[in-house]
Amino acid sequence: MNKLIAPADGLAGLKKHWKDDLLSGFIISLIALPLCLGIAMASGVPPMAGIIAGIIGGLFVSLSSGSHLTINGPAAGLAVIVLMSMEGFKKMAPAGLTPEQVEMFAYQCTLGVGIGCGILQLMFGFVKAGFISNFFPSSVVHGMLAAIGIMIFSKQIHTAVGVKPEGKEMLEIIMEIPHSIMNMNPDVALIALISIAILIGLPKVKNKYVKMLPAPLIVIMVAIPLGHYFDLETVHKYLFLNGHEYTLGPKFLVNIPANIMDGIVMPRFDFLFTGFGIQMMITYSLVASLESLLTAKAIDKMDPYKRESNYNRELFAKGSGNILSSLIGGLPIIAEVVRSSANVNNGAKTRWANFFHGAFLLIFVVFLGDIIHQIPLSALAAMLMVTGYRLASPGEFAKTLKVGKEQLTIFITTIVFTLATDLLIGIAAGILAKLIIHAINGVPLKSLFKPFFTMVIEDDDHYMIDVEHSAIFSNFMSLKKHLEGLPPGKKITLDFSETKLVDHSVREHLHDLELAYERTGGEFIIVGLDDHTSLSDHPHSTVKK
Asked: Under a CB-based contact definition with an 8 Å cutoff, are residues 250 and 239 in contact?
């Protein structure tokens, strides 16, 4: 099997592949522009905050990123956390401020949290904490993302129908959905409904030329004329079929400053080291780092050249990007999986595609500000609703159930606790649920966090590794480090015959290690699982004796 020769990096890669990367960067920028605006809206911050993050993620983070093909910018997964930060800091605002001043106070404090997050990520990269994603079970990560999807969908459906919810807590916002639907603004809701139809229907069209068109761009091209038809630029009232009177006006359109420099906002740090500020910094850095690392791993698998990301460098790059973005009023930056996947599919070859995507975003906001202002907010809300639904669709529940009933229990536990409390508690609850289930399934307590294994070198080419007690997510990092440290091109045999249980997360990691090691010309053999019982029919399900 011939291995493709990886494109050169740096200026050499730019010189040879600039056409492929420029085209992909342009297409991605068309997808990213409305998403940057929508994510800012979902975060409760000015639209320019999303654009700034996209520009910084492209122009600056791309040059230092540890990944070759990921696209950096704001993402829906962090919108929920930013909104939590905004709402929390509003409660801490000094007395006597106007509503607009309270908003600005919360925004500036949230930017301070973004800088704190960036500093923590720099530290993660410095101490080589790129392995952190290996600790979190996939069912917990997917549960976290599903909870974020539910939050995004629940929040944006109110915007999509033109109604502002009364509640502030997530469960209250969810409970208000029927009320908002019953009291929807018909013209605003129609724009959202048509936008959803385009986002769902366009990818199903078989025509190859239609498939080349980014669905978010088509939504904007349809929504802007609809906004003009309904005269959203002018404050006015209208009567609908039921005789009820509704109000339309510019508040239903994107609001960005005429001058990009007017969108720059400086952070404040006087509330950063309060209990709430520290909680937000930890949540920001944990979720931002985890999502970026998982995205880099996913894109590595899609990369036709099978390049492997430098995860520690990835953390360092995201940290520096978050500091820069937050210093000038931007949202947090991560490697975003949907745009990154599209980047690979569009034929990008090097990190310059990410750079070009940021450059085009800058051109758009400088020269097309008037057009951006004409985008209806309900169209952006529709995009976010579709994103949220995909994260928490019934298919995600079914997919988790196929891996095992215990995985579904962990998945749902993470969702419920996240919705009822916050992301950190939800993640902790999911991890605790998994540890309890492992203990019930016979994992010895002494091996919950410590791996037990021995390695024998049976000549210079064969490494025999015997694993005892258990191989689970919480004790796998040490074993993985040893496996990755073995010389390439050898024969490695992993024997699990003395284990009580090998969990789903470990089996997924072992599968990835097997593929990576065999690409080096080596042999990776797993034995000793024949006398274990699988907890489901999934090929990587948890097995136990």
From this structure: no
CA end-to-end span of the chain = 38
Tokens of 62: 């791309």
What are the residues whose beta carbons fall under 8 Å from the beta carbon of 485, sequence distance 6 or more? none
CA distance 81 to 280: 8
Cα 453 off chain centre by: 35
DSSP track, 100-142: HHHHHHHHHHHHHHHHHHHHHHHHHHHTT-GGGGGTS-HHHHH
Helix (H, G, I), strand (E, B) or coil at 13: helix
Burial of 135 (0-12, 13-18, 19+ CB in 10 A): middle
Is it the case that residue 14 has pLDDT exceeding 50?
Answer: yes
Run of H or E including 502: strand 491-502
Quickly name the fold that domain 445-544 has. Answer: Transcription Regulator spoIIAA (3.30.750)
* H helix or E strand, kind and range, residue 496: strand 491-502
Instruction: Check if the beta carbon of residue 306 is closer than 8 Å to that of residue 109.
Output: no
| Structure tokens, 327 | 């210093």
Q: Of 15, 87, 33, 429, whose CA–CA distance to 219 is shortest?
A: 33
Q: Rounded to the nearest 5 degrees, what angle is found at the Cα of 426, between the Cα atoms of 424 and 432?
A: 100
pLDDT-derived band of residue 3, with 50, 70 and 90 as boundaries?
A: low
Interior angle at CA 75, CA 259 and CA 222, nearest 5: 65
pLDDT of residue 210: 82
> Residue 10 carries which side chain, given as an amino acid letter?
G
pTM of the model: 0.89
Residue at token pair 């019934």: 394
What is the distance between the alpha carbons of residues 355 and 334, in angstroms, rounded to a whole number?
14
Beta bridge partners of 335: 72
Contact call for residues 314 and 37 (beta carbons, < 8 A): no
Q: pLDDT for 28-78, tens place per residue?
A: 999 999 999 999 999 999 999 999 999 999 999 999 999 999 999 998 889
DSSP three-state, residue 418: helix
Q: Tell me the C-alpha distance between 247 and 251, whole Å.
A: 10
Q: What's the CA gap between 386 and 56, in Å, rounded? A: 26
Q: Residue 423: which pLDDT band, with cuts at 50, 70 and 90? A: confident
Structure confidence at residue 144 (pLDDT):
92
Answer whether 400's CB lies under 8 Å from 412's CB: no
Provide the 10 A C-beta neighbour count for residue 324.
21
* Residue 374 amino acid letter: Q
pLDDT band at residue 273, thresholds of 50, 70 and 90?
A: very high
pLDDT higher than 70, residue 2: no
Domain boundaries, the chain: 10-75+86-137+227-377, 394-440, 445-544
Distance CA 467, CA 64 (A): 38
Cα angle 448-451-457, degrees, rounded to a multiple of 5: 165
Q: Sign of the CA dihedral 387, 390, 391, 393?
A: positive
Query: Residue 526 forms beta bridges with which residues?
Result: 494
State how far the Cα of 519 lies from the Cα of 487, in Å rounded to an integer. 13
